[in-house]
Amino acid sequence: MRRLAILCGGPSSEHAISLVSSVNVIAAARSAGFDVVVVGIAPDGRWLHFAGEAHAVDADDPARIRLADGGEPVALVATEDGGALHRLDGSGAISIDVAFPVLHGRGGEDGGVQGALALAGVPCVGCGIAASAVCMDKDLTKIVLERAGIPVVPWHTVRRGDDREEAARAAARFGTPLFVKPANAGSSVGITKVTDEAALGDALDAAFVHDDKVLIEPAFVGRELECAILDGTPPEASGIGEIVAPDGFYSYDAKYLDDSAALIPEADIDAALAEHIRETALAAFRALDCAGLARVDFFAGPSGEIVINEINTLPGFTAISMYPKLWAHRGVETPALVTRLVENALARATA
Ligand SMILES: Nc1ncnc2c1ncn2[C@@H]1O[C@H](COP(=O)(O)OP(=O)(O)O)[C@@H](O)[C@H]1O
Ligand SMILES: [Mg+2]
Prior knowledge:
By secondary structure, this protein is of the alpha+beta class. It has helices at residues 15-31, 112-120, 129-136, 138-147, 164-174, 200-208, 252-257, 271-287, 322-329, 334-350; strands at residues 3-9, 35-41, 47-50, 56-57, 66-67, 72-79, 82-87, 93-95, 98-102, 156-159, 178-182, 192-194, 213-218, 223-230, 236-244, 262-264, 293-300, 306-312. The strands form four sheets. The chain has a seven-stranded mixed β-sheet with strand order 8-7-6-3-2-1-9. A five-stranded antiparallel β-sheet has the order 16-15-14-17-18. Strands 10-13-11-12 form a four-stranded antiparallel β-sheet, covered by helices on one side. The mean pLDDT is 96. Bound molecules: adenosine-5'-diphosphate (ADP) and magnesium ion (MG). Residues 153, 179, 181, 185-188, 191, 217, 219-220, 224, 245, 248-250, 297, 309-310 line the site of adenosine-5'-diphosphate.
């Protein structure tokens, strides 16, 4: 039986969502027959192994879920025959065959954990260091996609301390409504929809709470469509899902707390547009050197023009998240999905 370490929690603003995702992935991995080792990463960065006891408290409430107290402190180490979790109380190590970082955002989805696993010799589900880091950064993602000839939403980058006059000029050029967002964040944290240019300064301040780099974008008026990629030989694209969010802003609350957004696993779009989106999603996956999985998020305009909004290398994996939903809709239930992801990680590690 393969021993699969599932890493969850983490230091980012998406700690809680990661825990919700992990509950779903752990159940699926167990039913797929893996020997699951649960590692909760505390917000302060400590790695805690949960053996018998539940790792999450208030697991069915995304507003309150948190990592349980307890858990034995462990550290990832390289051993003669692969990686292991070394118990910090000195009582030995738990060897692991492969890891699935069910982590979202910084310190989980950004290449750091992927690098730690690589150094310890542990095969890892999903993208490697470079693709994780670039896809985490919305500015760098757009630069790579543009270079590959893939359309993106126009943007202006502002760094902390930059002249705000220039940001205001860019915003005036785009016109309202605008979106102001941290380059490296997720779950809509720190994002403001600006409908009045006078509110630009406050929106920039709100985004700079989360990052040193911020993007200003014109609001794209259209539909929000998502495509899931599952690596294999060759990588496969799912059908096209649609997010219908209130006021065209899929906010944190709409994502997790208030049920105000609808997630449609098969968007009502024509077959040619669906195929174009699938091909573009696969091209983006390749351009960014992704591996394992990614969810590629698009906007589509009224005349069928498409742009990529962003790429998530560790997309939400809760029971109601789009990534598992898109595959379930194609007949790949979550236990089979986890098996394919783990097999892909192992195959890449030995290639
Ligand atoms: N340029 C834009 N035009 C229209 N809607 C946008 C734009 N940027 C972001 N949004 C809205 O905000 C949501 C969150 O933005 P996104 O860039 O996907 O960040 P996150 O990484 O937090 O998901 C999107 O799902 C969408 O509803
Ligand atoms: Mg998004």
